[in-house]
Structures are given as structure tokens and as C-alpha cells.
């Protein structure tokens, strides 16, 4: 059993340091160095050329749009843009890369020395220093068949799909992130979220975490105190949701603290994250001097972006997430607190899309931050992973607004949508969820309730209007919650 120290004790005793390596797949039409289409999915090994496979004699050519996107990312992260930079071969042997090297950048990244300001839940701004952002190509995808949870160990055979080989990536590497203290998990998750928002704002990637468009490697180390030298780090690979990032950091802090406090060393290694229980387990040992035998790529000319072009790109940068949030907060009339909650629930885009479908900001917020947030939390998923779209939510709210549904019925209809029963209108039909406003059925229930509660009727006659509630209750019950409460009240008053 892995020993863990209680998180609160761990961060009292030790100072956590983070390092984040984020890969983003660029949404270019073609791959980084060849004309094969860059599309998600597709039959295995169809979106490839000789270059994707690195066949002998094939030659790469740099994708101009990928360079443009990389520069935009660098600029948005307040980086210097290299006057001149080269690609390098990073040698390793693995079936997902047929060339046996990845074309990447090592000591000459396109962008370097930047920072990103990250807003935390309490409104504090935390600055993360960026070491570099460099261009590289993605590898193909191995599928190991027959072993436990898709690992190569114990597998009977492996399949390789090269469709993803050569897809353009930008990797953004932070400097060691110090000073986050007990908020290290939050800083890590909000940093990646802010990056994701920037990729979307720049329109350089769809940046969908669940598709692996954005992937984070999370380095964590502990030290006795903030002025001690850096401790030994572990690198948890490919963590692909904000919740997972938060949990992976938390878990590593608790695990490393338990080891250190019992006199054991932390082993420098890569680790795997397990979404089922929020734990990590050992991967391969990895030393700093890992020998990839980087050397300059002889088949590609250096990239030397003209200054004038870089300045044009800088001027053309769109509204970045921090500014957008401020604008939307004002447009929507949310308080600072409400907006921060919306941001940390990752509901900004969802609310924006719901509002675009005709719902008021307040109603959109109520749905996403209310029952849907609870549902997501219970299911341990992100809001965007729930089986309801902004459009469906807007349709649901429209049914509330036109009086077809009351709040209670609307929640039932939403349950149906989440359960895959169809659009709100379809669920309403299938489940028979209409508000009863045809008077015939209502009058009967109203009169029964009045007959059964003569004392309440007396009170109302005597001027105690608040007592009406005691009659509405039984009417609702008799109509299984489908009565329009306003109409019931009117019918009671008419009879009194
Ligand atoms: P690797 O090649 O092992 O992935 P990189 O330099 O690409 O190494 O990335 C390592 C990441 O970890 C960087 O973000 C770096 O700032 C960070 N880092 C380095 N040392 C430590 C440490 N002791 N504790 C936490 N993070 C660290
Ligand atoms: Mg790395």
C-alpha cells in the first residue's frame, strides 16, 4: 500500500514546487512537415504520407501556418520570439514514431522567457514564469491489446495508427513554479485552463482536453522550506482534465510527503495518473541526463520569422481570456464572486453559448451553476462532459418562460435529457410533463382541497393571505406537481 500524508499536514511540513509541460495540437489543415490532412479520427493509417511515416527518401517541409500559430501563442504568453531557430532530432525508439526520432526543437525554441497571469478562485493573480514554447510533431498512437488497462505490459499484440504522426504541436514549459504552497493543485489546474482559453481565443486549436488536443505533464517536488534547494521531482504524464490535474498534484504532494517524512527518497520518474481513484503509479525512471542525442535536423532550413511579420501578429492578437472575462462579467451583470465561480466551474463558454441561444444570463447561470454543477460533481466529470448542450438548456428555459413547465417539471425534463431521452420537448412529451392549466382538472382539485380544509378557507376569508399555500400544496399533490401554481391561486381566490 502506498503511504499518504494528510494533505493539510503535507503542505504544512513541506513546500511544493510545480513544473508544467503542456502540449497543444494545432488546428492547421495539414501536418507539421507534410501535406497529409490534420484531422481527428478517420480510419487508421489513412491520413498519412511518406513523410508521416518517415520513409527513406521522404523530405519534410515546415508548415507556415504552424509557425504562425506558434508565434501567436508565444506572443500571448509574453514571450520573446526567436530571430532565428532550428529544429532538432530527438532520438528515441518506439513504434509510434516510425522515423525513430521526433522532429522537435531543443536549445533553440521559437518562443522563450514569458509569463502567464493566472486568476485564482479568491481573485488573487498568480504569475507563472514560462521558460519556452517550442514546435514539434506529435507521434502516432499505439493500442496495446490483451493486457490490463491498455498498457503494453502483458499485452498480446499492439496496433499502430500513424494518423496522428506529424500533427503539429506546441509544447509550453514553465520554470519551476514556486510559492503556490497549499494552493499548488489549484494553480496547476487554473494555469492549464487559462492556457486552454488562450488557445481558443487565438483560434489555433479546438483545445478539447477530452480529445487530447491539450495534454499536460505535471512535475511535482517537495522541499523542507521555500529557501531550500529544489527537491527531486516526479513527472505525471498526460493528465487530461482540470480535475485530474488538481488531483494528481494533491496526490503526489501527499505521497512524496509521506516518503520524505519517513526518511525515504523520492525517486525521479514518470508516473501514470488513474482517473478511477485519483492516484498515480510509477512509470519509468528518468534522469535529467536522459540521452536523446539531440542534433540539428539537417533536412530543414532554420526558421527566421521577419520582425515585421511578428509585429503584425502582435497587433492582430485577439481579446485574451482575462479581458474577455471582464467584458462578459459586465455584459451579464454578474458579481465578481459569481464570475469567479463560473470560471472555476469552467462554465464561461457554456453560459455564453446558452445566452447566444436566447436565454438570459441569470437563467443560464442558474442552470449551469446549480443543478448541473451538482450533477457533474456527483459524477466526477467536467460540466462540458454532461450530456446536455447549451442549445437544449435554452430550449428547456424557453418552456419555463412560456409557462409550459414549472421549475420542478423543468428539473425532471433536464433529468430526462441527461439520461439521453432526447430534446427537452421530446422528454416533456414522453414523460407527460406538461403543466396542467386546463381549468377542468384544476377546479376539481381546488374544490376538493377547499372542502378538505375548511379551517384554512376561514383563515383566508379572515384576511390571512399567507394561508393560501396550505391549499396549493394539496392541489399540487393531486396533480403530481403539474399544476401551474399561479392559476391555482387565482382559482382559489375566485372561490373565496
Ligand atoms: P523533461 O525533459 O524531463 O520533461 P523539462 O525541462 O522539459 O524536463 O520539464 C521539466 C519541468 O519541470 C519544467 O517545467 C521545469 O521547470 C520543472 N522542474 C524542474 N525541476 C523541478 C523540480 N525540482 N520540481 C518541480 N518542477 C521542476
Ligand atoms: Mg519535457
UniProtKB/TrEMBL annotation:
Please give the organism: Gleimia hominis
Q: Subunit notes for this chain?
A: Heterotrimer of A, B and C subunits.
User: What family is it from?
Assistant: Belongs to the GatB/GatE family. GatB subfamily.
Q: What Enzyme Commission number(s) apply to this enzyme?
A: 6.3.5.-
Indicate whether Ligase appears among the record's keywords: yes
| Protein name as annotated | Aspartyl/glutamyl-tRNA(Asn/Gln) amidotransferase subunit B
From what superkingdom does this record's organism come?
Bacteria
Check the record and name the NCBIfam families matching this protein: gatB, PRK05477.1-2, PRK05477.1-3, PRK05477.1-4
Pfam families in UniProt: GatB_N, GatB_Yqey
Q: Which InterPro entries match?
A: Asn/Gln-tRNA_amidoTrfase_suB/E, Asn/Gln-tRNA_Trfase_suB/E_cat, Asn/Gln_amidotransferase, Asn/Gln_tRNA_amidoTrase-B-like, GatB, GatB_Yqey_C_2, Gln-tRNA_amidoTrfase_suB_CS, Gln_synth/guanido_kin_cat_dom
Q: Which PANTHER family match?
A: GLUTAMYL-TRNA GLN AMIDOTRANSFERASE SUBUNIT B MITOCHONDRIAL AND PROKARYOTIC PET112-RELATED (PTHR11659), GLUTAMYL-TRNA(GLN) AMIDOTRANSFERASE SUBUNIT B, MITOCHONDRIAL (PTHR11659:SF0)
Q: Which reaction does it catalyse?
A: L-glutamyl-tRNA(Gln) + L-glutamine + ATP + H2O = L-glutaminyl-tRNA(Gln) + L-glutamate + ADP + phosphate + H(+); L-aspartyl-tRNA(Asn) + L-glutamine + ATP + H2O = L-asparaginyl-tRNA(Asn) + L-glutamate + ADP + phosphate + 2 H(+)
Amino acid at each position: 500500500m502506498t503511504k499518504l500524508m494528510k494533505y493539510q499536514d503535507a503542505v504544512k511540513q513541506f513546500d511544493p514546487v510545480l513544473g508544467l509541460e503542456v502540449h497543444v495540437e494545432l488546428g492547421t489543415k495539414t501536418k507539421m512537415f507534410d501535406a497529409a490532412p490534420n484531422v481527428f479520427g478517420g480510419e487508421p493509417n489513412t491520413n498519412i504520407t511518406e513523410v508521416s511515416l518517415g520513409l527513406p527518401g521522404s523530405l519534410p517541409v515546415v508548415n507556415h501556418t504552424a509557425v504562425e500559430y506558434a508565434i501567436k501563442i508565444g506572443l500571448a504568453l509574453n514571450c520573446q520570439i526567436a530571430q532565428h531557430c532550428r529544429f532538432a532530432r530527438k532520438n528515441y525508439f518506439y513504434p509510434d514514431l516510425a522515423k525513430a526520432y521526433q522532429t522537435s526543437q531543443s536549445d533553440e525554441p521559437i518562443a522563450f522567457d514569458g509569463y502567464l497571469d493566472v486568476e485564482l478562485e479568491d481573485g488573487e493573480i498568480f504569475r507563472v514564469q514560462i521558460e519556452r514554447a517550442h514546435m514539434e510533431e506529435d507521434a502516432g498512437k499505439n493500442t496495446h491489446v490483451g493486457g490490463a488497462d491498455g498498457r503494453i505490459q502483458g499485452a498480446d499484440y499492439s496496433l499502430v495508427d500513424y494518423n496522428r504522426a506529424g500533427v503539429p504541436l506546441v509544447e509550453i514549459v514553465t520554470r519551476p513554479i514556486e510559492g503556490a504552497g497549499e494552493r499548488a493543485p489549484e494553480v496547476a489546474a487554473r494555469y492549464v485552463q487559462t492556457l486552454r482559453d488562450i488557445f481558443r481565443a487565438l483560434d489555433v486549436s479546438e483545445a478539447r482536453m477530452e480529445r487530447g488536443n491539450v495534454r499536460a505533464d505535471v512535475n511535482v517536488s517537495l522541499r523542507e522550506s521555500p529557501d531550500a534547494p529544489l527537491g527531486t521531482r516526479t513527472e505525471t504524464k498526460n493528465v487530461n482534465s482540470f480535475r485530474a490535474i488538481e488531483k494528481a498534484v494533491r496526490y503526489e504532494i501527499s505521497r512524496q510527503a509521506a516518503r520524505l517524512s519517513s526518511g525515504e527518497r523520492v525517486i525521479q520518474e514518470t508516473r501514470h495518473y488513474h482517473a478511477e481513484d485519483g492516484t498515480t503509479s510509477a512509470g519509468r525512471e528518468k534522469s535529467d541526463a536522459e540521452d536523446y542525442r539531440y542534433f540539428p535536423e539537417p533536412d530543414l532550413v532554420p526558421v527566421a520569422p521577419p520582425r515585421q511579420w511578428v509585429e503584425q501578429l502582435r497587433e492582430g492578437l485577439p481579446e485574451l481570456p482575462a479581458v474577455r472575462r471582464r467584458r462578459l462579467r459586465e455584459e451579464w451583470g454578474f458579481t465578481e464572486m459569481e464570475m469567479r465561480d463560473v470560471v472555476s466551474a469552467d462554465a464561461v463558454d457554456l453560459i455564453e453559448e446558452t445566452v447566444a441561444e436566447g436565454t438570459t444570463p441569470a437563467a443560464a447561470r442558474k442552470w449551469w451553476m446549480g443543478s448541473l454543477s451538482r450533477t457533474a460533481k456527483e459524477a466526477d466529470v467536467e460540466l462540458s462532459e454532461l450530456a446536455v448542450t447549451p442549445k437544449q438548456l435554452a430550449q428547456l428555459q424557453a418552456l419555463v418562460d412560456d409557462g409550459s413547465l414549472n421549475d420542478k417539471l423543468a428539473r425532471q425534463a433536464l433529468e430526462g435529457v441527461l439520461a439521453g431521452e432526447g430534446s427537452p420537448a421530446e422528454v416533456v412529451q414522453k414523460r407527460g410533463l406538461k403543466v396542467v392549466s386546463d381549468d377542468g382538472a384544476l377546479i376539481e382539485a381546488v374544490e376538493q382541497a377547499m372542502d378538505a380544509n375548511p379551517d384554512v378557507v376561514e383563515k383566508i376569508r379572515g384576511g390571512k393571505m399567507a394561508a393560501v399555500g396550505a391549499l396549493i400544496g394539496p392541489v399540487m399533490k393531486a396533480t403530481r406537481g403539474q399544476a401551474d401554481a399561479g392559476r391555482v391561486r387565482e382559482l382559489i381566490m375566485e372561490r373565496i
